[in-house]
Input
Amino acid sequence: MKRTNAVLASLACLLFTTRSFADQPQPWQMGMQPSATPIMSQVRWFEQYTLWFIVPITLFVLALLIIVMVKFRASKNPVPSRTSHNTLIEVAWTVGPVLVLLFLAVPSFDLLTAQLTFPKNPDVTVKVTGTQWQWNYEYENSGDTPLAFDSYMLKDPDRAASGKTDKSIYPRLLAVDNELVLPVNKIVRVLVTAAPTDVIHSFSMPSFAIKTDAVPGRLNETWFKAEREGMFYGQCSELCGKDHAFMPIAIRIVSEDRYKQWLTVASTDLSKANKALMAEVDAPSQTVDVAANVAQ
Output
């Protein structure tokens, strides 16, 4: 009996392992991606909030259209009314939209204020530069020589060499060779620009609710605070040229200790640091090994 329970436990651990899958678009997805920051949680709430206004208004207008088409069609109403004014209706269709806009404006202004209020003393500052067609990341205050590297879309022939064969975590056309690695529960300041001779790009990460244009000769700013670890994917959201669709953004959020270890190694050997981090983060949960040993 104990052996059977151990086998069942090991299978359950395999099915519900703590290995996290990446936040990315899903087939037939209708809603937004799960939130990873407080701002994105507010965005998702506001989207659901607006539906309580949009759906009833849409159904009400549809009902009015049906009533008009049925009740006031030519065969049913050959002599149309010549009424041109109705005070009650005119007051209602003026006051009603004003109230709706008021109920939408207050939470939307709160959301915009939260998005545009930049926290003081960010924990990490990263400069992001968009070029045709890759991203360059530079970690400010990361040493005498700031850590900087390019991030290209991962091509299928390079998957095996980079150890990124699992497409559930490293999806095709979204995975990159070098992810932007950042710590969890830390305020990250992002400075966004484009190469001086390049075009406008857009740094967008749906799960973080950030989307900032990368304009040549201009330094834009945004921020986020990721509340959970994992892999998060975005893309350039500006039509920047023929390879616009092949300019993904990948951010790996890890614990503070892992981030510090990665940053220390990456300053001298980026490839080694990435492989060491992947070996820790992508490894199956230890509970699977324990359950398997018990089953034996």
Q: What stands out?
A: Residues 38-71 form the longest helix (34 residues).
